[in-house]
Amino acid sequence: MSRKILVVGAGQSGLQLALGLQSHGYEVTLMSNRTADEVRSGRVMSTQCMFHTALQHERDLQLNFWESQAPKIEGLGVSVAAPGSFDPGPSQRAIDWVGKLDGFAQSVDQRVKMAGWMETFAQRGGQLVIHGAAVSDLDYFARTYDLVLVSAGKGELVSMFGRDASRSPYSEPQRALAVAYVHGLAVRPEHPDFDAVRCNLVPGVGELFIMPTLTTSGRADILFWEGVPGGPLDAFKGVKDPSEHLALTLELMEKFVPWEYARATKVELTDANGTLAGRYAPAVRNPIGRLPGGGAVLGVADVVVANDPITGQGSNSASKCAASYLASIVEHGDKPFDEEWMRTAFDRYWDTAQHVTKWTNAMLGPPPEHVLDLIGAAGRLQPAADRFANGFNDPADFENFFYEPEKTSAYLASIS
Ligand SMILES: Cc1cc2nc3c(=O)[nH]c(=O)nc-3n(C[C@H](O)[C@H](O)[C@H](O)COP(=O)(O)OP(=O)(O)OC[C@H]3O[C@@H](n4cnc5c(N)ncnc54)[C@H](O)[C@@H]3O)c2cc1C
Q1: Using CA atoms, how far apart are residues 158 and 290, in angstroms rounded to an integer?
Q2: How much distance in Å is there from the Cα of 259 to the middle of ligand 1?
Q3: What positions does the domain Styrene monooxygenase StyA putative substrate binding occupy (predicted)?
């Protein structure tokens, strides 16, 4: 008899898991609080830039439906505004380089991908239930399914999963987020022949990320401000009108990152739902959710490990979590999915996820001297730029050259 699994939440992790389990012959029910059409015509949710390893998990399941249409992101660049450069007068970049990715990255608007995957899941015979699950529903389902996976992102269901304070150094949001999807952005003049994620750091103020994406109206670019709370970029709170959001995005670009503003003078929003603003505190949670009736459910991806998007890792991690859990489920065969199994499945995922959390939390703080040296040196030493860029694909590599001053200087000496 095939095993019955309930997946609650149809985002990157829930859909990838549901489709993966379905292809392995499991009887899967997927619960989503929105229909595919509602997702497709709704608000943007992310910038969802995914690097090689995460994309490969999708390819392994033959779910890379948009690969040929989405822009191929071949590099990752870093620019740092010179201190005081946004005071009146000529502004400069203290640092500006681009590293080459070993394998390309891509961003497919989650409105396109999740809507498409939901339809595929249903077409392949999966049971898609449109319902916003409450804890009381899960109490019932935990008794009728062999396993309940909660992949509901940062929504209310996280309240079932206790925060792990030892792994969660921040209790407050560390950045105010403001996203705008646009058409009409000109290329970066430094590398007109290939696309890159551009990370613009404004010390003490925040960051502007720019990346190409495939959205509902074709190719577009995303302008994504991350502002230190209470600072000048933390200005989007009361802004409801999308054109006002874009105007503010551009005004801040002109002031703080004029080299990016220079190529953005002709942009327009992709659609009226192409903006997003918000903030959340990064958190690692206990992976096992306890239900009032005594049952247990396993948390997936953002439910259990939610990092700030400053390093663009959440969708990557969701893909890696889904791939890891899928392997743990399949390998477990017919044995019961008890709490011990849940703990082991999470620990296996945490082997990778811990590196993402460590690096992301480090990037939220002011950079220490040796990290500034490293980022500066990458402008002169292409191997350092390339290695930093490829760290976005495999953040475990930062252990080798990023956190400890001795390792950073030894690495830089080895390539100088
Ligand atoms: C501004 C911003 C920029 C980002 N940029 C990047 C980036 O460049 N690269 C990257 O890798 N990551 C990025 N991320 C993070 C990434 O989007 C998330 O980490 C990722 O989508 C998490 O996947 P998930 O499956 O855990 O949850 P989600 O994608 O959030 O999916 C959860 C789903 O569950 C549904 N749901 C919620 N509650 C219920 C309920 N009670 N019942 C049923 N369904 C429910 C939701 O509607 C949603 O569809 C960004 C995030 C933000 C906010």
Answers
A1: 11
A2: 31
A3: 153-263
Question: In the prediction, which pLDDT does 90 show?
Answer: 47
Nearest atom in ligand 1 to the alpha carbon of residue 301 is 26
Give the amino acid at 149. Answer: L
Residue whose CB lies within 8 A of the most ligand 1 atoms, among 280, 315, 326, for a mutation test:
315
- Low-confidence stretches of the chain (pLDDT beneath 70): 1, 84-91
Domains of the chain: 4-64+109-170+282-363 (3.50.50.60), 73-107+174-278 (3.30.9.40), 369-415 (no CATH)
Which residues contact residue 206 at a Cβ distance below 8 angstroms, ignoring those fewer than 6 apart? 175, 176, 225, 226, 227, 228, 231, 233
Best CA proximity match to 168, nearest among 311, 283, 313: 283
Across 242-274, b (16+ Cβ under 10 Å) vs e yields beebbebbbebbbbbbbbbbebbeebebbbebb
Mutate to test the pocket of ligand 1, among 48, 49, 53 (most ligand atoms within 8 A of CB): 48
